[in-house]
Amino acid sequence: MIEDFLARDLSTVEEAVRKAAAVEIMPRFRQLAEHEVDEKSGPHDLVTVADRRAEEHLTAALTRLLPGSVVVGEEAVHADPGVYGALRGDAPVWIVDPVDGTRQFVGGDPAFCTLVALAQHGEILASWTYAPALEELATAVRGQGAYVNGEAIRSGSPEPGAELRVAIAHPLYTSEHDKQVLGRLDVPGVAARPCGSAGLEYLKVARGEMDALAFTWPSAWDHAAGLLLVAEAGGAQCTVAGEPFRIDRDNTLPFAVGRDEPTVRRVRDLLRGEA
Question: Which Pfam families does its entry note (predicted)?
Answer without folding.
Answer: Inositol_P
